[in-house]
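User: quick one, fold this
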Amino acid sequence: MSEETESRLERWIERIEHNAFGAIYGAITVLALLMAMGHSANDPITTAVILFGSILAITLAKAFAQISADAAHHRAAFGWAEVRTGWQHARPTLIAANIPTLLIALAATEIYSVETAIDLSQIFGILLLAIYGFSIGWVIYRRVLPGLLHGAFTGAIGLALALLKFVLH
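Assistant:
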């Protein structure tokens, strides 16, 4: 393997390591919020704002909780450096909310229905989980089969939430 290829691979692995927690946490949270939404949302823009606002609130709560817990653990006040570090750790959670928010907001154009937007958002969440699951499996084992199994398991979590929404609504 060339040095350039190895360097790209290492950067990709670092991104997976950095974003995995937030992206997986965010995808599951988005799917859970979509599950709570009914199939008869009247205003797609309001629905999109509620979805993104909820994920943003959860992200901020997670960041502040982590910063506060770290400060208590170290028995030291926190400053901007800790806030920046906490935000950088929590920010990938929003990755999972961007596409579903956009898909739902685009339903306001009446290109497709809100129900279709929610279905597409669920598919996005499941795929995001499967991709991150595969990536994590590959990073750990450096083999395709464990990556596929890890991706299937992680994607199955999203699929279970989507199926639960279907059963409930």
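User: anything notable?
Assistant: Residues 19-168 form one domain.
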